[in-house]
Amino acid sequence: MKEIMEVKERTQELIDKLLEVWESSVRATHLFLSDSEIDSIKEYVPQALGGIAHLIIAGETEDCPVAFMGIEDGALEMLFIAPEERGKGLGKRLIRYGIENYGVERLAVNEQNPQAKGFYEYMGFRVHKRTELDEQGNPYPLLYMRR
């Protein structure tokens, strides 16, 4: 079973491994993004990983992450799981961990990612707001959800 742990020291090596998890996850789930859009977004991921208040990873050890989430002020800001780990209950465990330990009560999800929306609904979140553009002003509608 994968361990869940909060990362205190965010080394470049760990950020690089999490970036690999992020990219493989996005390529498997964000089918509405082009390769160039993924490459463009990827440039900002290390900064986001370094700046998020709580970075929680899951893996055999801290050196081998297969999933991660970022939480700030009761909001789930990011959740990415390596494709080979999807469907094994790790996402549920991470969300529950975030709710129990960090009071996660809200999140935003891309409308064009129906699997993620369905997963969050299964976990007790409901859509309360929709925007036409994402937070960077791109034409990817976001659904804002609350528990």
UniProtKB/TrEMBL annotation:
Keyword Zinc: no
Keyword flag Chaperone: no
Domain N-acetyltransferase positions: 5-147
Enzyme class: transferase
Domain of life: Bacteria
SUPFAM superfamilies membership: Acyl-CoA N-acyltransferases (Nat)
Annotated EC: 2.3.1.-
Any one Pfam family match given in the protein's UniProt record, by short name: Acetyltransf_10
One MF annotation (Gene Ontology) recorded for this entry: acyltransferase activity, transferring groups other than amino-acyl groups
Alphabetized UniProt keyword annotations: Acyltransferase, Transferase
Signal peptide annotation: none
Database matches in PROSITE patterns: GNAT
Name recorded for this polypeptide: GNAT family N-acetyltransferase
Annotated source species: Candidatus Mediterraneibacter tabaqchaliae
